[in-house]
Amino acid sequence: MQAQTVRAHKHLHLRLVQAPLVGRLAPPAGALLQRLQHKGLCCGLLHQQKNFWHPSCQPVRAMASWPSIEIGGRKVEGISIAGQETCIILPQLSLALDTGRCPQRSAFQRTVLLSHAHMDHIGGLPFHVATRALQGLPPTTVVLPSCVAKATEGLLEAHRALDGSEMRCDILPCKPGDELVLMNKLICRPFQTFHPVPSQGYTLFSRKQKLKAEYIGRPSEEIRDLRLSGQVVTEQLETCELAFTGDTGPEFITAEGSADALRARLLIMELTFLDDKVAPESAHEMGHMHIDDLVDHADKFKNEHILLIHFSARYSAAQIFENLDDRLPADLRKRCIPFMNGFLDYSKA
């Protein structure tokens, strides 16, 4: 397999892979370069870039695995296109956020956090469970809203009957206010989101012990003796490492219980609509975010990084970047990373 890397926009890195796709061949990278140059998108070759996405939408479904991006030391893979498929993969945590249509790499993640039961977010769950069983991997752990647990079990039962196999998995129902310890030792706490069907987001926390301030700088022998005498010399430090909204309207931003999500080191947040062709009010009626919501509440986001997902398929990659660049305040824009796997249909480039 050969690959070329181009810079197609001031924020947009593409890796063009010459690989066979189901029912068709990907155009040679050189031909795609010419198309991008013709549209004024290509600014030259880059060297040894690590963060790429495949530049197609529909044909990219045939890719065996997804390119990853790295944000704050965490690898992020998967795909998110509104109404089609959302599955965010965090391989270092063995975690999938929703299952989409079950991209191949997602099946190797032990834990799935489901935000809600719309098909573009839950449709791949039976395949995820079945694939792990087929590969002899431990059963999937599925964390999901309590109110959809019974229906989800029914979905899996139907597939067990069809597949003629056990398809074991562990379902963990939860709701805002609950706390779970995941296999990766992170603490998971759901928070309320706002969508036409029952939904919730998730915050993930790390915990570690830190030396109390009054003991900092003291000799290690003294601290050891204090410990041996039964003195507590450390305190627990909790850090919100990650938050995931799933699909939601902007009400979550001001809702009680969302404060942790708005200060998480990495916030993975939907942003479906980016221009005035869809009014904010219409976006809200559908239970989605509009870019104006991000602008209006810019001061509330204290996150180091914000991964924006779930863009409408009506947008091209260039349109996504143009709207983000033109409309977001500078301080917020520099912290926002659009998740582009699946966008920029090169057949139209």
The number of domains: 1
The tally of beta strands, per DSSP, is 18
| CATH architectural grouping | 4-Layer Sandwich
What number is the mean pLDDT?
A: 82
Order of SSEs, N→C? Answer: EEEEHEEEEEHHEHEEEEHEHEHHEHHE
**Shape from CA axes?**
globular
Distance between the termini: 23 Å
Low-confidence spans: pLDDT under 50, at least 5 residues?
Answer: 1-64, 345-349
- SS-derived structural category: alpha/beta
CATH class: Alpha Beta
Helix content: 10-25%
Q: What percentage of the residues does DSSP assign to strands (E)?
A: 25-35%
Looking across the biggest beta sheet, what order are the strands in? 5-6-7-8-9-10-11
Task: Give the number of helices.
Answer: 10
**What is the CATH homology-level superfamily?**
Ribonuclease Z/Hydroxyacylglutathione hydrolase-like
Any idea what the radius of gyration is? Answer: 22 Å
| Oligomeric state of the chains present here | single chain
Instruction: From the 3D structure, determine the CATH topology.
Output: Metallo-beta-lactamase, Chain A
Largest sheet: 7 strands, mixed
Protein name: Metallo-beta-lactamase domain-containing protein
Domain Metallo-beta-lactamase: 111-311
InterPro entries: Metallo-B-lactamas, RibonucZ/Hydroxyglut_hydro
Organism: Apatococcus lobatus
